[in-house]
């Protein structure tokens, strides 16, 4: 048996980011920039008002105060989006809206609250500071400056920055297109009749969801028959277009373990036993001229999920050009449980809070790797080291969260009286 670290290192050493692509900005959501992206415009694009009020010259409001307001005639209105060039008229004010271009020559904006708000002639109760309530062209970013450095993942704020900066296309590490293939003649796809001895393929939909949640793109979710020739043909076909392939089942010692039979000797494929529970039988290889990583995960649903979290997720992140590190969450064992000897053990747990406000965890949903209904009850996997044979009450355990932390915390907040 090899350790979890050894197997993960072996995978990550062989996985490279996918090719770069130049995409229209809205389609680059979730992807990582390859080079510095420079702004095509000053932001703001022009001097404009940050408040609804009046554009003035300060010198026209010398001594203005609530006790002795100064009266100025109003030239007219400047609305946001106004395209007419406006100029300050000495001794007068323009009524101006938030985001509207500042009339040339005006040097301050007085908020409407500091005036009587009149349209033709307004009383001003303050003497504004130089540049008050003015947003200057280029104060956010200047044309030609870097608006997004290389290696940035494009999320919502970055999309806003790029489109504002007039950037239309961006070079990114391409989307990672993933093929998910279940194996086993006992499986029927969702929605079809389940006969005697048959079960519904749950790994397919589960992995499709995990791939999507990991920011990658499931492009085909299907099934391989327990037949070598067809399986070989199908995998060859997917090696031509996929950026990663995940299979489940057929990696153990069964007489019909077709994946193992077909992929042994292909590319860098290796089948190993990893010192973990569940998830002991694992296969991995980089195959074909496009060097596609192929993950051959065990078929038991819990084993497949744990294998995804431990091996596939980090590899997909590397393939997508993301640099991530696991932020470890910990919890205190509210009950004790056994831990498999000589194997790192991932125990399904439900999270609550102990009296000090820390996460408290307890096994939930049963022990077997086949218990897919019980799996749905788990918030996290509690990790106990290979050396441990049990987890003692009150001991601290590392947690791999299966739901976003915000969701767990939200539920716990709701549980409280
Ligand atoms: N003699 C031995 N038998 C087994 C060993 C062993 O060391 N010696 N290891 C066990 C462990 S641990 C695991 S994990 C499984 C892995 O088996 P395979 O990867 O070969 O998977 P299958 O035999 O095809 O299936 C196992 C189990 O999972 C169910 N399954 C498979 N695919 C799906 C799916 N897409 N959706 C839902 N359920 C699925 C399948 O029906 C089996 O019940 O091997 C042990 N055996
Ligand atoms: O290692 Mo298997 O994955 O225990 O069920």
TrEMBL record:
The keyword Transferase applies. Its EC number is 2.10.1.1. Residues 179-318 form the MoaB/Mog domain. Pathway: Cofactor biosynthesis; molybdopterin biosynthesis. Its cofactor is Mg(2+). It holds the Pfam family MoCF_biosynth. Gene3D superfamilies: MoaB/Mog-like domain (3.40.980.10), MoeA, C-terminal, domain IV (2.40.340.10), Molybdopterin biosynthesis moea protein, domain 2 (3.90.105.10), Molybdopterin biosynthesis moea protein, domain 3 (2.170.190.11). Keywords: Magnesium, Metal-binding, Molybdenum, Molybdenum cofactor biosynthesis, Transferase. Transmembrane segments: none annotated. It catalyses: adenylyl-molybdopterin + molybdate = Mo-molybdopterin + AMP + H(+). Catalyzes the insertion of molybdate into adenylated molybdopterin with the concomitant release of AMP. Belongs to the MoeA family. This is Molybdopterin molybdenumtransferase.
